[in-house]
Amino acid sequence: MFVKTQTPEQRLSTWRDIRNKNHSSIEEVLEDFASIKLVSRYLDYYTPKSWPTPFEIVSEGYFCLSGVTLVLASTLVYKNFLFEDKIIYPVISNNINGTSGLVILHDNLVYNFTPSKIDTWDYVQENSTVFQIHNLQNNKILS
Predict the structure, then answer these.
(1) End-to-end CA distance of the chain
(2) Mean pLDDT throughout 102-107?
(3) Which domains, ranges and CATH numbers included, belong to the chain?
(4) I want to staple 6 with a disulfide (CB 3.0 to 4.6 A). Which of 10, 73, 129, 142 is the partner?
(5) Which residues partner with 105 through β-bridges?
(6) Cα 109–chain centre separation
(7) What pLDDT was estimated at residue 143?
């Protein structure tokens, strides 16, 4: 979806195209996000007040696991796949692929633990270390 050689404007345009694409399911959105190549940790996943907005993440290319998760959450809210006032963001260390950062927990399902898949919370707990869980208002994260 995003490549290193894109300008900030090109990344924002690509994201706008994804947000405006006609997705009929969360799985289709996850499939679009699965092609993002993760970079080393950039965001401090323990301090939500320090998190940039999804637009800043895309513009600046902050595509660590946490950055991608926040952009994914924003996209899912925009497309009305997530509509609660709060989103739960566990901070995990994935024992399968070695990544660390935020994932989305919703109705006992986890998004962005395994690219393009929806995993159960039980599966994630069995295959990761959970360090912390943030339960945050949408308007604080998605603005």
Answers:
(1) 22
(2) 96
(3) 8-141 (3.10.620.30)
(4) 10
(5) 88, 110
(6) 14
(7) 53
For 17-74, the pLDDT digits (tens) are 999 999 999 999 999 999 999 998 889 999 999 999 999 999 999 999 999 999 999 9
Structure tokens at 27: 């799985």
Place of tokens 């709060």: 86
* Run of H or E including 87: strand 86-94
Q: Which two tokens stand for residue 124?
A: 């994630």
Residues whose CB falls within 8 Å of the CB of residue 104, separated by 6 or more in sequence, listed in order: 69, 72, 73, 76, 82, 87, 88, 89, 110, 111, 112
Distance of CA 115 to the CA centre of its chain: 10
